Amino acid sequence: MAVGxxxxxxxxxxxxxxxxxxxxxxxxxxxxxxxxWLSPFDPVAPVADSFGNPFPPGPVHLLGTDExxxxxxxxxxxxxxxxxxxxxxxxxxxxxxxxTIGLMAGYCGGWVDTVLMRMTDVVLAFPLLLLALALxxxxxxxxxxxxxxxxxxxWTGVARTVRGELLSLCERxxxxxxxxxxxxxxxxxxxxxxxxxxxxxxxxxxxxxxxTVLLDAGLSYLGLGIPVPTPSWGRMLSDSQTYYRxxxxxxxxxxxxxxxxxxxxxxxxxxxxxTLGGNRRTT
Amino acid sequence: xxxxxxxVAAAVLLVTACQAPETxxxxxxxYLRLADQDDIPTLDPARGYDTASWQFExxxxxxxxxxxRQGQLVVELATAWEMAPDGRAYTFHVRDxxxxxxxxxxxxxxxxxxxxxxxxxxxxxxxAEFFRGLVGAASCDAGGCPVExxxxxxxTTIRFRLAAVDPLFPHKLAMPFAAxxxxxxxxxxxxxxxxxxxxxxxxVLEEWRAGQRLVFARNPGYFAPxxxxxxxxxxxxxxxxxxxxxxxxxxxxDVANIPPAEFPRVRRDPRYVPLLRHIATMRTNYLGxxxxxxxxxxxxxxEALNLAVNKEKLLQLINGRAVAARGVLPPNMPGYDPDLxxxxxxxxxxxxxxxxxxxxxxxASTLWVRADETTLRLAQALQQxxxxxxxxxxxxxxxxxxxxxxVKASADxxxxxxxxxxxxxxxxxxxxxxxxxxxxxxNNNTNYHNPTVDELLDRAARMTDAxxxxxxxxxxxxxxxxxxxxxxxxxxxxxxxxxxxxRDYELHPLRPARFTEVWLSEP
Lengths: 283, 523
Prior knowledge:
The complex is a heterodimer.
Chain A: H1 7-33, H2 35-38, H3 72-108, H4 110-125, H5 128-138, H6 143-154, H7 156-169, H8 173-180, H9 185-221, H10 233-240, H11 249-275
Helix pairs in contact in A: 1-3, 1-11, 3-4, 3-6, 3-7, 3-9, 3-11, 5-6, 7-9, 9-10, 9-11, 10-11
Chain B: H1 3-17, H2 24-27, E1 31-36, H3 51-60, E2 65-67, E3 73-75, E4 78-83, E5 89-94, H4 108-119, E6 150-154, E7 157-161, H5 169-173, H6 183-189, E8 203-209, E9 213-218, E10 232-237, H7 241-249, E11 255-256, H8 263-268, E12 276-280, E13 283-289, H9 299-308, H10 311-317, E14 322-324, H11 347-356, E15 363-370, H12 373-387, E16 391-398, H13 400-408, E17 415-421, H14 428-435, H15 451-462, H16 466-483, E18 486-498, E19 502-503, E20 519-520
Parallel strand pairs in B: 1-10, 15-16, 15-17
Antiparallel strand pairs in B: 2-3, 4-5, 5-7, 6-7, 8-9, 9-10, 11-18, 12-18, 13-17, 13-18, 14-18, 19-20
Helix pairs in contact in B: 9-11, 14-15, 15-16
């Protein structure tokens, strides 16, 4: 009988994945923190005479310049900063909203659960990007709006998962004991339930970061992100599409940066999931 | 939150729900296929005053006079016209075979009705000033608008009497503002006439799906025999230049603009060269500065901006498809002043000028632009130039319609990027319309007010000696350039490309391209 890789092998692989993911994320964080020192030029000012005629990668401009005479590498490096910042903030808000709603729904049950979960369903029923677009049209483009939009559409997954976990946790003996000892609802939620879902939440947060990066890039691509000329990967992509034939490097490098970031967070997320002992499917 | 933003949000959500399959008509390849990013602001000839509106108003309506492809005045609805010896009256004979698409014949009264409508304050027409010279027109107000200067002598004859000599009056009758409209349809549609227009032109509006497409069909009852030669015209909305180019290359559009990135290749490619259409327009693109708003109320600040902008860089961005502008008038306009010095690119001097005005460290401001890729690139280039002298610019990008509205009500628009194209080949169509203080609120969007300029313009308007008039208008241009409400940027050359089945598509020197003569070589 043919046998696939055994369990141990898989676990090692997943731990390896987590380490690779962690290293990749770390590299991004380092780039973001050291952006002013790492980027060879000002990301906004023209540094080459390449107006209307982007320069290809070369010894001075390692990744070339764009049609407004700006250094692509510098813009990419500064874009990392923005991308990670948006991802971190939006994920934080997403998790906060998701956990709160999930905890309340799972713990309270009854009509609270029904109302909160139907609300989640409504948000989930919309195609994510379309809902984000509609919200972005309502708000003035800018960093706060971008965060609000991403947070407003991103919390549903966390809320559902947390609620699901709670439904089984509430049946467990330690909960019965805590209730019997007269613990208040707030204490029950924060001291007994939250620690038990923390691992799941952490994994989901990491995984949803990669979604956030994509959504941020998508919204910026559609012109609903941070206004020009602040370098953002999505905006770089959309600016480059007219030059896809004559200056493909304008499109390739921000594309690669987005792929790298998404892969990094996915590796880390799934690696963590395996390492921390979770074996549920989370997304 | 504005109503418009809420509507956009609602529309985005509705789009998914309402994705109807393309109708048979739209797939009809006998139609000429065009595309643009933005919807048309209006099709009401009394209200539209932008290139997009005019291009399609031209299809639906007729004026007494029109321009041929050389830019010469010719008759359209008129069969003949005479000017009185004293130059203060014009008599027009209207052709008797023109009909509105409802079937009713066009009569002289329809012209009178249309111009009266433009003059009535309730219409809020941006063209009212052009007809203010008619006897009695000055007294048009909410109370009434008799305009004794327009007399319908019989079914097909109308006489215009002017308070003063105006050699440009025939040109004004060639503007869509003076197009014949049927009174009964205007009254029936009310404010909605711009969405449900009825005219006598070569095409009729068949369908207008807001934000998606406009479909125009051939008007079978059109008076000129044999035209239009195409079954109809579809104009898709929401297609930016890049996407339009891809669709053009894929054979799904018949006319397209060429994105700057593709232009050098297209111009060299022997496959495309015969399909290119090219014309020098009478147009000036400029950066408008709101003279009523600090810091642009200070002339030194406006001069500083003029000195700070590198126009050569802008030309590079659009592959040299333009001539750098030194003044207001385009080079092919009568009265163009080749000796106008303008402002050189001198950022150091610009900084000094800003310091003199009390802004040694610059200031922050907002630049309003139309949200299309090329304009955004130009805006970013300007942003870079101004950043170099310490002026920190935020770019605010809007769709064409809302952008025009905002610029017109320019109280809160400090800087904007726009172009002006001549309605008729006379310098007053730039200098008076854009810089006379009586046009504040319509086309003088910089709120520029200089009594000397007003006085010179008023004198020029009454002048019969053409040479002296030109001298006055040149002086106006010099004063305006010195006062610097604009940073004149460039005079664009228009390039379009057609598919290989399109025949007789020509660009027009004074109007957007027309479709009456166009035909398609294969279905």
